Amino acid sequence: MYGTKKARRALRFLVDGSASPMESIQAVLFFLPCSLGGHGVARGELNGRIEASVGGRPFPNNTFYRCDILWRAHRLVVEYESDMCHTDPDRISADSKRRTSLIAAGYTVVTITKKQLFDAREFEKIANLLIRHTGKHVRKQPYNILTRRHALRKELFATIPKAKGQNPCAPPDHVEPSDGNDADRDPQNVESHT
Question: Is residue 14 within 8 Å of residue 32, measured between CB atoms?
């Protein structure tokens, strides 16, 4: 049957549990192997549930937390903070309390903003941090990795739904999305994991 081989290959990269399109895009960019334009970060658990803090005591005022991406064995959490859902003063306060509780419980919490997600260089820095934190080594990548990553990012960001003619998840007008392929950057010195 036509396409069966490609479909089987794609199935290896499916991750269940995303709660939003931006979480899905973030996961694809992190988890896909470098050969497909991703960063090859070890696969984490999407919307992983953390039940209790260090010592088995429950989190204050909560029975559990759900984290956008959780690497349970490494006590590592990634949270995407959208412009639409994380700008209200009460939400900012709740996010801060949540981060503090997770850090007090021994988790490393990395937050990603929309601007960081859309900026290839900033996203690469975060991916490399996650790679190191999950016990892998960051290594130099072949020259064409930037082209692969640019193509993947272009395809993923094209899938974001538009509202009233504008993309609500697009970077601010004054920020150009970076593909990391600037002339002053030596493509042979791009880092990623093995």
Answer: no
